[in-house]
Amino acid sequence: MEGNGRLVSCRQDISAIVNEQTAGAKHKDLSRNFSSVRFVRGDGNCFYRALCFAHLESMHGDARALQRFKEAIIRSCSEFSSAGFDETCFRCHLNTVVSVVEQCQADVQEDQLYRLFNEPKTSDSIVQYLRLLTSARLQNQADFFGNFVEAPNLQIYCRQEVETMAMECDHVDILALSQALDICIHIVSMEGHEQHLAHHVIPEGAEPSVHLLYQTSHYNILYPRAQNSGRTRLNSEKLTLDE
Fold it and tell me: What pLDDT score was predicted for residue 3?
């Protein structure tokens, strides 16, 4: 899986993952349903970086969708406040995300998004915002999410496992961030011994704007083939917190 050393690679044909000589059932399944892939650096931040890039890319040219997303980012101030975050902790990262969305609104070329996500300072600030927002949502919904974390308490979990850069995300974090930003995520998993891919749609029944490949504790971005541009539902199952 070659990303040319970038935080987010250019879009590549699915054959960059699928070796026709050694392809098993899962790889063939992947090739049938997805046309291309975009690699994300495996630095522990791959889920957050992939999610935001893919979601913004899915809204390219859709002024209304971009405006709604920007408003959702601005409204997240209340999420942070409810969780007791000091504004100095999140404001600069929130402003970075708003600035990136505004540049996407002003730019008709998709390469602007690619450039911004490969600027380490900008890209990592986006990741940090998403981590903090995930933490805030977990703490604001502590009665629910607190049952699914392995830590002395939820605050310790959030501080050590969620807010800290380069820490891999868990299922509970994905669900919390999906809720916080109202983003539907389709995760295609290569894991397990089954013959076919596992498809997880979060939340179940919604239309995903983001398609991610999960393999060996790492996330990359997938692009469905035209006939599968809606939901890929082969062996589809809900990603639940008790997996």
Answer: 60
- Among 186, 200, 211, 218, the one annotated catalytic: 218
Give 47-81 pLDDT, tens digit per residue. Answer: 999 999 999 999 999 999 999 999 999 999 999 99
Domains of the chain: 12-43+185-237 (3.30.200.60), 46-181 (1.20.1300.20)
Task: Assign 21 to helix, strand or coil.
Answer: coil
Closest to 7 in 3D by CA, of 118, 85, 98, 106: 118
Query: What would the pLDDT profile of 155-168 be if each residue is shown by its tens digit?
Result: 999 999 999 999 99
Contact 166, 44 (CB under 8 A): yes
Is residue 60 among the annotated active site residues? no
| Residues sharing a CB contact under 8 Å with residue 124, sequence separation 6 or more, in sequence order | 45, 165
- Kindly state the tokens that stand for 192: 């397990």
Distance of CA 130 to the CA centre of its chain: 9
Is the separation of the CB atoms in 172 and 144 below 8 Å?
Answer: no
The single residue of 55, 186, 199, 211 carrying the catalytic annotation is 199
CB-CB contact of 237 with 196 (8 Å): no
